[in-house]
Structure formats: C-alpha cells, structure tokens
Fold these 2 entries.
Entry 1:
Amino acid sequence: MSLFFKVPLDIEVRLDGEDSRETVEVKSAKGRKEKLPVYKDGETVKGQVSVRLKDNKRVEHLGIKVQLLGSIETKVDGIKNDEFLSMAHELASPGDLRHPETYHFEFRNVEKQYESYRGKNVRLRYYIKVTLGRKSADVIRERELWVFQKNQLPLGATKPDASIKMDVGIEDCLHIEFEYSRNRFSLKDVIVGRIYFLLVRLKIKHMELSLIRRESCGAPPNQVNDSETLVRFEIMDGAPVRGETIPIRLFLGGFDLTPTYRDVNKKFSTRTFLSLVLIDEDARRYFKQSEIFLYRE
Amino acid sequence: MNQALDSKTLEDSLLIVKQQITLMRKCLESKNPQFMDALKHASTFLSELRTNKLSPKLYYELYVLVFDGLAYLSDFLKESHQTNHLADLYELVQYAGNIVPRLYLMITIGSVYMSIENAPKLEIMKDMLEMSAGVQDPIRGLFLRYYLSQKTKELLPTETESELKETIQFTITNFIEMNKLWVRLKHQGHSSERERRLKERKELQILVGSNLVRISQLDQIDKFYYKESILPKVLEQIVQCKDSLAQEYLLDVIIQVFPDEFHLLTLDDFLQSTLHLSEGFSMNKILVTLINRLIDFQKREPANVKVIISELSTLTLQKDEHEENHTEESDSETTKPQTSSNLFEKFYDYSHLLVENKPELNFKDLSLILEAICKLSLSYYPQDYENINKVFGFALALIHQTTQHLEIWEPLLKTPICYNFDPKLVLSLDDNYKQFASALPTAIQSANALYILEKFLEQDVRLSTVEEVKTLYELLAVWFTSEDSSDSNTNSLLFGTDSSKNEPDESPEVVSQYEALAKSIHLIHHTNPYKHFELLEIAKSFMSKSGSRVRYTYPTLLFAVIKLIRKLTIVQKLNALKLKQFCQFFSATNTELLTLVSNGTLQSEGGVLAQTCMNLNLSMALILDQSSHIDLSYEFFINSFVIYEESIVDSRLQFQCLLSIIGTLHKCRNIVNGNEDNFDVLISKTALYGSKLLKKTDQCRAVYLASHLWWIIEELDEEDEIESETAKTSEDELQVVIKTDNKKVLECLQKSLRIADSCLETNVSLELFVEILSRSLYFFIHGNELITIKYLNGLIELIQNSILTIGEENTSIDTPTKHFQRTLEYIRQQAQIDSRFEEIKDR
C-alpha cells in the first residue's frame, strides 16, 4: 500500500527559535520520550513550512494550508476529538509544485486557553497541521506544541488559601490530627505539615504520603474516572506513641504533576489528592485523602 | 537457630552495603564524578538500614560500615562543594522515597553544609533535628539520632551566647527524643522476650548517654547555666520516662560526666527530682555514687568546695530574698539559708522525704543511703558529731519497722567507726546508736563491739572521763548483757544444740572479745589516781554484768588497782582512807571471782582461777608491804592462805601456789621488820603447808625452799652500794640481813632430808639429796653457822654412798649423778676463792 500510494514529497514544519526555546519532555503513548517546544498563552506561533519534492517530479496540488489546532481527545466510548481552537492560513493556492518551497506562517498572539495535558483517557494537545491537498490522499504533517499557562490561578479553590486541618481516627484504635500549611500549592512548592498522634492502638509499621491524580472525563452518567498514584513518600518509620508529632515535608518540584483543572472545556477535570496512608504490621492500610489545588507559577 | 538466622541476614546486608559503597566510590572517583549515581548507590546501601531483622548489636555492625561509607561521601562533598551546591543537594535528597535513607543522606549533606563558612548552621541543625522525628522505630531511630549527634558534634556553633543556647537545646532535644525511643523499646515485641529486650536496651544505653557526654564537653557552660537551663530539662525527661533502667543509667551518667562543682551546686534539684523516679529504681546506687563523688571532691579540693558552698548559700539567699520580695513575706525565715547550704542537712532531710514518698523503697537501699550520708557528714563536717546521731536516730526509727534481714544494717553500724576513725566521734555517739545497735542480732553487735574496741586499742585512745568510759562500755554492752541468755543461743547455732550450758569452754570469738575487753581496761587513764580509780569502778560495774566471764577481765582490773597503788607509793601520796577503799574494792572483786570457783560453774578451770585469785592476793599483799601497810599486807597474805586452803585442791597446783607464796613472802621487807610475829606466823604456816603436801618430792622441795624464809638476805647490786652505806659498814659483804634464823633453817633442811630419805625410789631421793646439798651450800656461803663443814661432808658422803648402793652403772641415776658432779666441781672452784671450802672433802 505504502509503495502504491507513496507520498511524492516531504513536508517539514520548523518553528522560529526552536533551538533556544524551552522544551518539555513528555512520554508518548508508545512510551518513548518526546521533546516538545513550550508556548505560553497569547504567544505568537510562527515558523516555516518546507515542502521538498521527492524524485524531482512535479506535484499537482489543491492548495497548501497550515492550521493551529487545539483539541481534546477522549477515549471514552471510542476516541472522540473535540477541537476548541482552530486557526488556518492558506500557504499556497492550488497549482503545481516544481521546486522545493518554503512558506512562512505566523499565528499572532494566539489565545491558548488550556494547558497541554496527557492523561490516561484524555489528551489535550495543541499542534500545527500542514495539509497539502491532492486529488488522491492529502499529505498531512503535524507538529505538536506544549502549552504551559503560567500564573494560572488554581481553579475551583473554594477558599482563597486555607490550611488543611483534620482530625480523623478509628474509634478506640487511632486518633490523629494532621495539618498541612495550605491547600493550594504551586508545582514547585513544598508541602509542609505535621501529624499529631492522639491515640495509637494500632501497631503501625510506617506511614506514607502519596499524591494521587484523579482524571475524570465525560459527562456525569458516562463519566470515567481514573486515578494514578504519582508519588509515594515515606514520612514515618516505626510505630509512634501517643503525643508524637511527625513532621511532613514534601518537595513537589521534582515530580511530574499536573495543575488542577476543572471542567476543561466541559470535557475533563484533573484533581490531585494528598493521601496520608498508615500501614500496620498486618499490612492493612488506613488512609485519609484530602484534595490539594495545584497551580503553575 | 535464631542467632544463625540473624547473622545470615547481617552478612547479606553487609555484602550489599560493601558492593554499593564500592560502586559509589567508583562513581565519585571517575574523572567526571557522577554524583547523582553516587547518591543513588548511597541510597541503596542506606536502605539496608531499614531492616528490622537485626538485634541492636548486629545492627550496630551494619551501622558502622554504613557510617564509613557515608564518611567517604561527605569527604567528597567537602572537597567539591564549589561544584555541587550544597543547599541544592540538601533539597535534592529530600526526594528519596524512604525516610531512613533520606534522613541519613540529609544529615550527611547537612553536616557538610554546616562545616562551610557562612552556612545557615542553626537552620540546618534545627531542620535535621525536626525531620529526625520521622523515624519512630526505636532501634533505627536511636541509630539515626546517634548518627546526627556524631556528625554534628564538631560543628555545633558555640561562639555566641545564642548559638550556644541553640546548641544545647539541640543536644538536649536529641537526648530527650533518643531516650523516649530507648524507653519505648521496652514495650516492643513479645512479653516472653522481655529479658532479651532488657539486654538489648543495655547494649544501646551508650547511644543515649552520648548526648549528655556531649553537653558536658561544651567548655562554655558554667555551673549556673547548667543549674538554670540544662539540668532541669534533662531531669524532667528522666523523671517522666518512668523507666527504671533509663533513670538509673542516665542519672549515673549525669553524675559521672559533669564536674563535681556542678553537682554540689545543683544538689537540691537533683535530689528533688529523684523523689519522683519510678518504682523499682535502685536509689542507693545513684545516691551512693553521688555522695562518693562529693566526698572525693572534698578530699581533692577542699578549698574549691568551700567556695562553691558559699556561692550556693548566697544563691539561696538571693533566691529567698527574691521570693520574699515577691511575696512580701516577713523575714521569719532568716535562718533558712544557713541550713540549706549545709550538705548534711540536705541529705538528711532528703532521706526523710525519700521514706515518705517512696514507701516501697527497701531497707537495704535505705541502709546504704544512710551509710553514704554518714560518710558524707564525716568528711564534710568531721566535727559535727550530732549529725551522726541524727542519722542513727532515723535509722532506729526505720529498724523498728522491720525484723527481717537485719544484717543489712551492719555496714551502717560500722560506718562511724571504720570511716575516718575518730575516737571522739565514737565516744559522742548517743543513745540512738546504742539502741540501734541493740536492735540488731547479737552476732553483729558483738562483732561491731569488737571492731570498735580494736580500733580503740589500735589507736591507743585514752579514756579519761566518766562519760567516755561509760560510753565505750555502753557501746560494748552486748557482751555484758547477753552472756547467758544468748550465749546458749549462739552456741547452739554454732555447734548444734548439744553443747551443754554449764560447759564453760568459750568459742574463740568470745575469748578474743574478752581479751580485747581486758586490754581496754588499760586504756582507762587519769592523771589523778583517785579519779582513775573511780573510772575503774565504773568499768567494773559494767564488767560485773558478764557473769562467769569476769574471770577474763577482773584480773586485769585488779592489776590496774595494784598499779595505782604502786604509783601512789612512788609519789608518796597514798591516802590511808582511799587505800582502804582500794583494798575493799580489791577484795570484793576477788571474792566475786572466788565465788565462781566455789559454785563450781567453771569445773576444770576452777583450780586455775583460784590460783589466779591467790596470786592476785599475793601481789596485792606484796605491793602493800612495799608501801609499808603491813597490817593490810598481812590481811592479804591471810586471804591468800585461806584461798590456798579452801580452793586449791589439786596437789600440783598446791605445790605451785606454795612456791608463789614462798616467793612473795621472801620478797617482803616491811612486814618482816615491822611485825615479825605476824611474819613468823605466815612463814611457819607456809612450812607447815609444805610438809603437808601430797607427794614426798613436793613436800621435800617445799620444805627446803621454805627454809629460805628464815634466812632473808638482800644482796646488793653494785649500783645500790652508795645508798646502803650503813649496811656496808656493818658487814664486809654486800648484803643486808633481814632475817636470819640458823636453827630454823637447819630444821627445815633436816626435815627435808628426812623426807627425801623416806622416798622409796632411790634415784628420786638421790636427786633430792643433791638438791638439798645445793641449798646447804647456799646457806653455808651466806654464813649460817649451823651449816658446818661437817654437815656438808656428811651430806656428800650420804650421796656418794647412795650412788654406790644403786651402782654407778645404773642409768636411772645419770641425771642426779651428773648434778652431783657439777656441784662438787662448784665446790672446788669456790675453794680457790674461799678458804672455808678447802675443808670440804671431795672424795
């Protein structure tokens, strides 16, 4: 098939200042690592599209266009693609291509409403799509961008900035009080807190803190949730006694976390939970989760 | 089984650690150090420390190896800290998922960071300390915190006051946390492993104690700061941990590591807190150690002690003033500061509190504590005897509460005597001590009494007041009072119940006791002989209680009296009235002794005792004669004779007694001159006793010896020449004639000759003949006119004939024959200087 429909030309998308631009490493679906250029909201996206002919044959086309697309792909009930951003420029009108050509394009001050995201069931991606129309199959070339929205305010934080303080326990078994300094953190923040043991009758072996990302997509009846533990961090070894205070300090900067998104384009949300897990000698786990709001600075 | 498993686990872990250390070093030593990889290896080998399968001892082995590995890492960091920004690294290691490796890495990097100039030392310290709380497992936590303290010990800042405070705070907090972990270890695991748990905890104790050592090594701490800020916190923790092993060990560490002066200053606080320690805590060990340290301190630096005590009193004074200002109370408590700086008072009051607050405290501990307090008082306040009495008052109260294990009090009983022996102290012990002593078993009492007495004898302590004599003998009271009732008890204990009560064979202990007691009489001394006598009377009043055992002590007492009389005679101050008193005392005492003989309690010993009595009488008679109290002397001779007649039954003893009588009479001078009639009565009686002896040989010898009593001549030594000039003028020879009665002498000799002749055994009579010859020669030499050459020749002939009759060859007469030969030899020699002898026929 590929021989038969062999594409007679190469399209290459180059972005301006590509070498000096900040990049981000993302794992692709196949498990490979990709390096993607990072763009901010409102930043101009510009570059060149080079079209090279193979075998120096003349190629007839129905026009070349470049698009900047933003889409949310969900894997619930098959793959659904929903574009929330679509901009296009025509690079060439229908005609013949005899020589390699380079076209400049520029999308000026594009509003990039959302951050790029790759989750389990949801992907939010921005990409440049170059389409060379032909009578047979179009030749399409895509180039993905990665978008960070800096200074993004945490979405959906109920109160502006509150510490989390909780008093939990199992009757006559365990009673602890824990406290995190805040409930919203930037991705480079440190979670600081403490756990105070009021009653300990369990034979606790150790205690950890984990960060869980919960991704949900779809509308309520068909909503799909998926949780993923991103970080496991032991904060206590051995059994404490009544009255002990265990410090918590977790640096977030080193982990691959996602800011809290709520109802991105009414398609999906990602939330992060801080989970305190106590493991006893019989490997039973007792945990308490509380949501934290992450944002990017 | 279990152990093998343990060591297998250890070996596995050690192997992994070694491998990882090697890998880590490779990463660091390569040209482009791969620091991140090195950290990863470090983290891997640190993960081995997460194990909970090792006993503390084995865990320690693992720890040591890991420590070395980390030391390598920190050396590297120190050298390359320019390239690796330490603050970043410090943050980087925070990402380690497991807490134990994370904290070890953190401390490793943190300590390197601290060693660099301008580093935020205090923040790092605090952070590391705070984070260490994450490890709650006792063993792992202890080692981690130990690591923290080891790594930071050289780096803790002490330059400024606030830094010093932080450093101390840091160390104390670490100490408190470690102690909590250590105590918690007790409650872990199965209850059947409690023994093992205890052993393990003992192995770990040094880790906890190291923090206190660290504080003590901070030179900048002065004693006031210690009192104000360090000790209270440490003590609070020790009290609160409610674990006797920890309390005992840590208090001991405090005592050992901090300087003596600190202890002196903080004594109140220290003692106060010990009152709140948990049950089962052996109080005595700590207190005794503390007191011993204080005592040593006093011995080493008495000057320094004084300074501190005065500081202490000013401190309390200030405090009181402060309090007074604060509460605006009247100055009713002005005396308080003085007493409160008295160490003894402190301990004494404390011991009362101890009993009140800790009813479970056993008496053994209390006795040891009191003993230590005693010693303290003796070394700090050697003059303050009242202290000791107080202690024993308290001990007395305690001992009344129990009747068991009384032997535990013995060391306390001996303390005032053996510790820095001071006779004055012993003599100022009051009733408390005596009652205390009497509450103890008699065996202990008498051993103690002997101990006291031996000390006195050793030091040759003179007793010169009534009180002293009384006190000493009251201390020895056990010997006087318990004799009959308990003696049988001790006997039955020692030798079984068979030993009959009327058998006066004393145990060696008793004999040595009484020997010492007899010696003690010689300790009594007063420059005024009459006062001295009074003291002796008191002594006697004590001795008289000891029943038949007075036989050990009375003779000494009587000799002491004789000694007194002699002394008075020499200074010529003998008062007749007093003398009579002496004599009455003497005869009364002697009679008491004699009653022992007459009532027969002593059986076989009786004769010997009677002889002693008689000899005592003779000695008394002699001394009275010398002091020219011839009538009294006569009385005592008569008494002696009475004893001889009534109490001396054994014929051998009789002979010996008779010899004593003859000897004593022969020494008398004044009675011969003053009242010759009396003397004649005495000597005739003596001769008569002699002739009435049972055995012929005894009779013979007694009679010829008695002959000397009629022929008393005092030969003067060269030195006496000048004094006895009168005698010299009257006689050519150097002799004073006191009594010469030629006829009586001859009679005696004749009589003895007759008796000798009547002996059936010829060899015996031959010996006697020779002896009589010797006597005759004596009298001949000294000018008895009735002993003539003819008489002597007759005797010699008689002897020679007897030898012939028996036959010279008979070996049974070897000895007398030789004796005879020597006598003849003597005669020949004499003949050369004395012409009279020439006429004696020899052969």
Entry 2:
Amino acid sequence: MSGISLEVAAVKYKRQSVSVVMTHVLIALLPGVIVYALFIDARVIKNIFIAVIIAALCEAAMLALRRRPVITTLKDGSIIVAAALLALSLPQSLPLWQLIVGIVVMCSLGKHVFGGLGHNPFNPAMVAYAVLIISFPQTMTQWNTELGLLDSAPIHWDALTSATPLERLDTTLQNKLFESTNTTSIDKELAADVLKQSNWTLLAFMWLLGGVYLLAVKVINWRIPVSVLATLWLAYLAYGSLSSSTVIPATMALFTGAILFGAFFIATDPVSSATSHPGKLFYGVGIGLLCFFIREFSHYPEGFAFAVLLMNMCVPLIDHTFVRNSLRTDNAKRDST
Amino acid sequence: MAETGMSWLSRFRSSNNKHYAPNRHEGFPPIGGLALTRNKPGLPAPGSPIKDICLPAQLVFPLVDYHKHVLTPVVSVGDCVVIGDWLAPGVLTSANGVVSAIEDRSIIHPSHCSALCVVIDTCPDTEATLAAIQTNEVFSSLTAHERIRRANVSGLGGAGFSTANKLAAIHSSDIKLLLINAVECEPMISCDEALILSDATHIIEAVIQMINITRCARCVLAIEDDKIDAIPLLQAAIKSSRQSIDDAAVNIELILLSPIYPSGAERVLVQRIIGKMPSAGIRATDQGILCLNVATTLAASASQHGAPLIWRVVSVAGSAAAQPVNVRVRLGTPVSHVLEQTGNESAINNSGCTMRIRAGGPLSGFDLPNLNVPITATTNCITVEPAIASEAAIDSASACIRCSRCSDVCPVGLLPQQLHWYCDKTLTDDAMRFGLNDCIECGCCDVVCPSLIQLTASFRHNKATLREQQLSSQQAQISKVRFEQREQRLEQRALQAQSLRRQRAKQLQAKTAEHDPIAAAMARARARRTNK
C-alpha cells in the first residue's frame, strides 16, 4: 500500500468547524455574562477580558515552544472559550495575579503538557480551578461582590461581602433551624424566598438558557447535562426525604452554585468527557453523584470541579467499556468460539 | 411488520407521499447517515435507452480480485480471444480481440497501485459470437447457478463480490429474503436510476426470474422515495407483471425509503429493511438474505440466456463535467475513452492541473492516478471536479476534539473518534475491537468532522495494511507448517534409516553367529592340518 489518497471531496453539507463550535459556546455564554455584569458583579467583564488576553498570549507561547503553527491554532477559538469559562468559575474578587496563575496552569498543565487541543485528559479550566482553590483557599471562597451595573442601593445582601452564595444559603438555613422547631415548611419558604431575591437564580436561569441554545445548535449532546442534573435532583430528593436535617429542596438545589453552569458548559467539554452514548450517561451520573457527595459531606461548598476531574480520570475506562452493543455481542461470540 | 419501527419522522414523510401506491411500505429509520440534497445530473428521459459507448482500440483487464489477490492468467500474448473467454479465473474478456500484452498497469484503486493486467487489441464484434454462446450445447446443459458463474456476474453496486459465490454461500432453500437494491443515495451517481428509467419492465422481469431461480420466500425491491420518475415506472411494471404472469408466488414488495446516505450499502440496507443491523463480521448471506443490485439482477437474468457480463452503466458527472450523462461502457475501457466519448475532452487535457478526475461519488470516491485506468465492474461513476488545493485541505486538519458528531452519523454504529485515536497510534488490536473491519468507508464522518480530519482515508489505509499483515502472517503460518512437516519428515526418514541400519546389523550379527566364516575357516584349516 503506497501513496494512499488523502482526499475526499467536500459535499454541500453544512459542516460545523471547530471555530464555529467555539463561537456557539461563546454566544451561549452571553446572556449569563450580561446578567452577571448587570446584577451581580460588573468586574466579570474585566476579568473575562484579561483572562482571554493572557490565555491567548500563553497559548501562543506554548505553541511556539512546541513548534506548532500559532496563528491557525489560535484561530479555532478553543482557548478563548476555556479562558472565559475559567474566569466565570472564579470569584470576581480574586487578585489579578492569582487569576494569571490560574490561566498559566490551564494552558500549560491543563492542556499543552498532554499535547494540546484534543489530547488533554482533564478539563483544563477545572485543573486550574482545583489548583487555585487548593493554593489560595481564602481568596477563592470569598465572593466579595461589588455592585452590579443595574443594582440599586445595597439593601439586600447581594451587595454585601459574603461567602459563596451557596454557603450563604446553607448558613441561613441553619440559622433558621435554631429559631424554629417546625423546620421543613418554613425552610422551603425561606429557601424560595432567598432564591427569589437572589440574582444568582436569575444567573442560573441564564446558564440554562445558554445550555438550551447549545442543545438546539447541536454543539452539545443532551446526555451529559441531563444525566448530571437528573442525578443531582434525585440525590437531593432522596437525601431530603431520608435525613431529618435541613436540606434545600431538590429542584432549587439545581439552581444553586455552579450546577447549571457546570452541567451545560463544563461537563460537556467533548475532549475530556466520555464519547459513546451510554458512556456519556454513565459519565454524567458519576459527576452528579460525586458533586452531591462533595457538596454535602465535605468542607468544600462547591464540588463540581472535583467531580468533573475525578470523572475525567474514569473516561478511558468508560470508553474502553462502552463499545457499541453490536460489536460487544460479536466479541463475546468470537471469544466463546 | 415494517410499520412497527417507523419513527414519527418517517410517518410524517409518508403523509406527504400519499400519491405513490396503495400498498406502500416504509423501511426502518437508519441509525446514522446523512440527509444530502438530491443531485443527480445526466439522467435519461423515462423510456429512452442509455447511450452505448463505442468499442475502444484497447481494453485492459486487471488480474486482481477485490482484495488485491493476484490472479493467474490463462491466456498468453498473441492469443485470440472472443467475448466470454476467460482471461483468468474470474476475469472475462468483454470483446473479441488479440492479447497484446500481459503487464503491470495502474488500476482504479484508492491506493493508486498498479497490478498485472491483460491488454487486448480489439477487433469489431460480431453478433454471431454471442449467439454462438447461447446455442452452445455445453451452455444449455448448465444449471441456473452455473450459468451465472459462467457469465462471471459480479456485484455492480460497490463491493464487486461474485454473485455466484454469494448464491453459493446460501443454500437456495434457505433464502428468506431476496433484496433488490435500487438505492443510490450518493450525489452524482445515477447509473441504477438510469437503468430503471430506461427499461423498468426489463428489470422487473429480471427480478421475477431471480425469484424463480432462488425460490425465495420474500422479495423486496428497495428504492428511495425521492426517485419520483422511477417509482411509477416500477409500480406499473410490477402491476403488469402480476397481470401477465398470474403467479401467486411472485410478489415483489416495493419499499420506499427516505433518502439517507448511505442506505444503498448492503449492511445499512438490510438494517433498514429488517430493522436490525447484522452483527459485526456477519454478512447478509449468513442470515439468508440475498442482496442484489438492480444492475446485477439484470446481468444475472441476462446470463440465463448466455450473455456474459461485458458492460456496465457508468455515470459521468461532477461540477466540472461538460455534459453529465449515463453511458453503457464495456468493462476494460480506459477512463480517457469514456471521457472523450462523453464530450469531456477538456477534462482529459486539464486533468491534474485544473481538474480532478475521480472514481465513485463525492463521498465514497477517490482520485484517479491517471486516465488510462480501466473501468471495472465496480466503477459506478466518474466525476470531474475542479481541482482544489488539496495540500491546504490536509494542512487545515486539526486535532480531534471528540465531539462525537462522527459517531452520530456513522451508519453502522461505530465510534470513528475512537477508531481514529487507535489508528493514529497504530494500535490495530484496539481498532479491531472497535470494529475497524466493519467500517463501510462511506465517508459520512469526513463530512461532519469539525476538525476536517480525513477519517475514511485513514481507516481504508489501516484496513488494507491490516489485511496485508494478516495475509502475510497467514502465509508465514503456512510456510511454518510446511517447514515443520518437512523437518518431521526428514527426522522420520532418518529414524527409519537408522532403525533399518540397526536391523541389518542385527541380522548380520545373527547370521555370523549362526555360521561364523572366520570360525568356519579356522575349522577348515584345523581339519586340513589334522588331515595332514
């Protein structure tokens, strides 16, 4: 076999190139970013901007070091998406130098040590997040929110210095527990009240909207987000009915913290997630369960990053296990004969 | 039965196509594939015959089968051959002439390789040649299956398997389903549709003849529902055949499929008709399904009257083709002759610089090394495309981001992203486990890949390499066994010789023990002495 022909003519078919895929992700992030900037913290725009610039420079340096084409690779836009996702997962009050550390970790340890785009076993943004939260726990858990652009006077506590919104909710619930004996009904009311007041819920809805857009333009597959959310919902439902202590209602739990953002934008990273259809479901369920356990039974208020990283480790095994059914049956047959 | 697997989508489609037939059936939805816009230039008007191309001065017949196994020629240079003579086992001459050379020539193959070919200088045919075969006494005593083998009928769709071998693979009593394949979803390729348009009655007659030969339980004629000119012709032909033959056993089910590429591939078609994809490594024939292309059916039917397979219909199309057309071409005709006769002289002159000549359609096809390559039974289409900067296309391929669009469109349910990973790392065992050999090389994954990776070419290459490795390891195994047998034989022979020697020595010893010549001599001497 010599000189195999490496061409198959293009057919008139609307192909989504990598850059188009990445553009769709950026469009899907847009409503969330707008709400974030308007109602929660205007610094997010600045942080995203800085993150993207630094990431592009870092990526260019890495590519140059690895002697790969710089401009054509930068054009695919994957680094812009990764930088934006990282900037959105971090607290906006994070010192600039720590943000830069995160970006450099994302580019180098998250991506290029493994061989660049398509070869990283871990989600680069989550690698950076994990490094930051372990290295700088104090700044990483202080959600020091400034005013959003459209916020009125600092009457309610969105404008106050606080821990993560999720931690705040937990604390509020527990405070209430001391005051009242009839817990469940009041807690639900309170939680609903808290969430209604909170602009974070609006933000979560925006992430959901972005996720639905990604599903509509077929950039992501429904299996991972649906299995993540369904698992978390069921886990909170079961936990709420089993334990006597205060637990936020299952449906509301999905709108807290980074769950919707993570389920649609982080867990669906194609490179580091499972690839077969049953594998995707398995991967999503794993993330959901791990996230639930880390949130409820560990010191970390938000477990999404660790859940994603732990499941990233399982991906080769999942992909090895879930070969399509037709092939498996035949392999079994071949083994038996 | 077919209705149970209908998706809501196909149900919606069927409501749009009510004008077709009262007893219309729909197949099962495919598990992958692409919905491509219909683009079939060069179809003849319904009822008008397909144009024949004149006989070229030279015909070339590659002496290889589909797996590149080299065949041994049974003719030598200077021999006179007439239509239907064997040139090698599995290769017939398609014209009268003289063998002028047996040499290496380039052939239509994705690897651009060359192969041993028989070159024939043609002389004008006489109708008498064909008539002579038909009245041949030997021929008239042959069974239907033997006639198909004698006529060298092979698949005119894609793979080019010998039809006689396909028939031999199933016991004729076990044929559950005769599946006539009129599905041609790839853009540009329209040779089967052209055959139906030009002579639908003949095709239905051929199908009925095949039903009688195979004595199958069920016969399905599958066609896409967007061939709106061909379907009424087939329906009318089936109706009139029912009236004229009045045979309850002959019942051709016409199944209209949504035109999803590549429904014409055998595995995919079987899945769309019976609802289940044959497991990996299992052929349709193993399940009692005989799948024949319409052109093959026609050739098999013609073989019953003694006509060998000497021509096929070839679509000449493509965005740079001067005149898209379907023509009947002798097997062995050089591509340049076909282009010349169809008014594409400019393509010949500009081939390689501004135009690319390809065999097969835009998805499953490949570029030709030069224009002297001969048409074979599997060449369904010649496309003339404007040249693209192919190097640029390869350069722009970026890394796989495992988006799984390819596995969503794979019509046989593979995971091309995983296959790509393993093929890239030459982990052939893993690639095999993920079904590399089940890849039908349809090219769907190439079309959707956001990173512009040439997946099919890589799979094709790896499959071929694997096949070669297997072949050489097989041969090594055979040589090893042969060597071991020889060693054993030699050893045995040595042992035998040794035991024989021992036996003789023993015999000699026994003999000497009986009457020792020395002792006898001494006794004689002693006797002599005492006598003195």
